[in-house]
Write a structure and sequence with these properties.
two-stranded antiparallel ribbon, Serine Threonine Protein Phosphatase 5, Tetratricopeptide repeat, 8% strand, 20 helices, mainly alpha, 10 strands
Length: 499
C-alpha cells in the first residue's frame, strides 16, 4: 500500500504484511503487541484480533475522532476559528493549505495503513483453519461475515480518501494510488477516479452479498444498513441517482429507522449517543476511558466544571445559527448562546452538538461518539437524488424532515416551491441537519459551489475572513502530502500545488 515515506511505510506496511499488529478485544485500544501473520491467522480467534484492529482506525484524532468531523465544516462556512484559538487547523481554515500542511499528511498516514490492514486481512482470512473441537460450518460462516465487514470498511476508508484528495469526476485521471493485496512496494501511480470508484462499489457490493443478518440491530459494527447507507452516499456523490435512491430505500423501508420527533429524544442522539432510530453507525465506547478519543466538546465548548464558562476554539457563524427558526428543535440542541471567557463583549453561538455524554464525565468531560452514518443523511441522500428523478418524492421527504424537526411545520410551503427553490432548500436543509458532522466542505465541492466567509466581529481573527472561495479553487482537492511524493515518485500531485 502507498505510504507516507519509506520509514513510515516500512513501519506500516511491513508491520501489517510481515507482522500483524494485534490488539485485544477492546475496539479503542491501538495495537500494543506484534505477532507474525502466520500466527495471527492460525485460528478464527486470531482473525478476530486482526478484525478489531481495523476498527481501531475510527479512534484516530486524524480521522473520525476529530479531524474528519471538524475540518469539513471549519474549512467551509459553518464554523469560525476564534481569534484566541491555539493555531489549530489554521492553514485549512485560511485556505493556505499546501503539500506540507500537517493535516494532509496525518490523514493520508491514517487511511493508508488502515487500507493496508484491510488488504492483509482479506488476503489471509480464507486461509484460517478449523481447529480441533470447532464446528467447520460455524467457522466458515464467521469468516464470511468478517470478510464482509472488512470489505465495507475498506470501501469507507478509500471513499473518505477519495472525497478529500480527488475530484468527483469519473473522467478525471487523478484518483487514488491503491492496491488490493498486501505489498511492500512503495512506488505506485495514481489510478483514475473511475477505477477508484469501481473498487469502492465492488467492495460494497461484495460486502452486501456476504453480510447477511450479522449485527443487524447494532450500531457499532458494520451491518447491512451500514453498507446501504454508505452506498447511498457514494452513489449520490457520483450522480447515480437511481442507485442512490435504491440504496437509501434499504434503510428507509425498515420501520425501526426514522426521525426522533421530540426535543428530549433528539437530545439523546447527541448528548447520550443513543437512538436506534437515528443512528446507523457510531464507534463503540464500551468503557468510560475509551471516550477520551472523541473529545469534540473540548474544542467546541471547553467549559469544565472549574472554569464554568465556555472558551471554544471553533464557534458558529451568527447568521447560520440564526437561520434555524426558534421553533426548530435543532437550534437549542446544536447551539448554545453564551458569554465566552476570552471574549468579554456579546454572547456568541457556541456549537453544542457534542455537549458531552454524562456517562463519560468521570473520565473526561465533553466526549461523544461521532454519528458517522445516520438515518437523516440517508433521507437527505434520497431527497437530493430524487430531485433529478421525481421532484414530488423530494418534496415529500423534505416535508417529513421538517415536520420532525419543526413542530407544527406547515408542509404546504414546500408544495409551493418551484424547481430552483426546491433544490436550494434541499441543499440548505442538508447544511442544517448535518452541520458539524463532517459534510459541508464535501457538499459544496460536489455541488460545484463556492462560499464566502467575511469577518463577523473581533472574535474572529482578521486573517480568517477569507472572503470568497470560488468553486474552481484548486484547494477543494487536498494536495498529496509532500512526504508521500518524496518516497513515491510515481504519484502525481494535484494541479495547483507547487510540489
Amino acid at each position: 500500500m502507498i505510504a507516507i515515506n519509506k520509514k513510515i511505510f516500512l513501519a506500516a506496511a511491513l508491520g501489517a504484511t510481515m507482522l500483524m499488529s494485534a490488539c485485544n478485544k477492546k475496539l479503542d485500544q491501538l495495537p500494543n503487541t506484534s505477532v507474525s501473520t502466520d500466527e495471527i491467522y492460525t485460528s478464527i480467534a486470531g482473525a478476530e484480533i486482526a478484525y478489531n484492529g481495523v476498527y481501531s482506525t475510527f479512534y484516530k484524532a486524524e480521522y473520525y475522532a476529530r479531524a474528519y468531523v471538524v475540518i469539513p465544516d471549519l474549512a467551509a462556512d459553518n464554523m469560525i476559528l476564534s481569534a484566541w484559538a491555539n493555531n489549530v487547523y489554521n492553514e485549512i481554515h485560511r485556505w493556505t493549505i499546501h503539500s506540507g500542511t500537517y493535516e494532509t499528511g496525518n490523514l493520508w498516514g491514517t487511511i493508508y495503513p488502515a487500507l493496508h490492514r484491510c488488504n492483509v486481512f482479506l488476503a489471509n482470512i480464507d486461509k484460517v483453519p478449523v481447529l480441533s473441537g470447532e464446528n467447520a460450518e460455524t467457522v466458515g460462516a464467521r469468516k464470511k461475515t468478517l470478510k464482509a465487514h472488512i470489505q465495507a470498511l475498506r470501501a469507507m476508508f478509500m471513499f473518505d480518501a477519495l472525497r478529500i484528495y480527488c475530484k468527483y469526476d469519473l473522467n478525471d485521471p487523478l484518483g487514488l494510488p491503491f492496491v488490493t493485496a498486501p505489498t511492500t512496494e512503495i512506488m505506485h501511480k495514481r489510478k483514475s477516479v473511475q477505477e477508484t470508484y469501481n473498487q469502492i462499489v465492488q467492495d460494497l457490493n461484495d460486502a452486501a452479498a456476504n453480510i447477511g443478518e450479522d449485527n443487524a440491530t447494532g450500531m457499532t459494527r458494520v451491518n447491512k444498513y451500514f453498507i446501504a447507507a454508505l452506498q447511498s452516499r457514494v452513489y449520490l456523490y457520483f450522480k447515480k441517482w437511481d442507485l442512490a435512491i435504491a440504496a437509501a430505500d434499504k434503510v428507509m423501508s425498515v420501520a425501526s429507522f426514522g426521525y426522533e420527533t421530540t426535543g428530549a429524544n433528539l437530545l439523546k442522539v447527541w448528548r447520550d449517543d443513543n437512538s436506534t432510530k437515528e443512528i446507523i453507525f457510531r464507534p463503540a465506547i464500551t468503557e468510560i476511558n475509551e471516550a477520551k478519543y472523541f473529545s469534540y466538546g473540548v474544542w467546541l465548548i471547553s467549559d469544565d466544571v472549574a472554569r464554568n464558562k465556555p472558551n471554544p476554539d471553533f464557534i458558529a457563524p451568527k447568521a447560520f445559527a440564526e437561520s434555524f427558526s426558534t421553533a426548530d428543535l435543532r437550534r437549542a440542541i446544536y447551539f448554545r448562546k453564551d458569554s465566552v471567557r476570552n471574549y468579554k463583549k456579546d454572547s456568541l453561538y457556541v456549537i453544542n452538538k457534542y455537549p458531552g455524554n454524562p456517562a463519560y464525565a468521570s473520565w473526561q468531560e465533553k466526549c461523544n461518539a461521532p454519528k458517522i452514518l445516520r438515518y437523516a443523511e440517508v433521507a437527505l441522500n434520497k431527497m437530493e437524488a430524487a430531485y433529478y428523478v421525481d421532484k414530488s418524492v423530494s418534496k415529500t421527504l423534505l416535508k417529513a424532515l421538517r415536520a420532525a424537526r419543526i413542530p407544527g411545520y406547515d408542509g404546504t410551503i414546500v408544495d409551493a416551491y418551484d424547481d430552483v427553490t426546491l433544490l436550494n432548500q434541499i441543499r440548505e436543509e442538508r447544511r442544517k441537519e448535518l452541520a458539524y458532522e463532517g459534510h459541508r466542505f464535501f457538499d459544496l465541492k460536489r455541488w460545484g459551489l463556492g462560499f464566502t466567509r467575511n469577518r463577523e466581529g473581533d472574535y474572529q481573527a482578521a486573517e480568517n475572513a477569507i472572503g470568497e472561495i470560488k468553486p474552481d479553487n484548486y484547494r477543494f482537492q487536498w494536495p498529496i502530502p509532500q512526504a508521500e511524493r518524496e518516497s513515491n515518485k510515481l504519484c502525481d500531485q494535484n494541479p495547483g500545488y507547487a510540489n
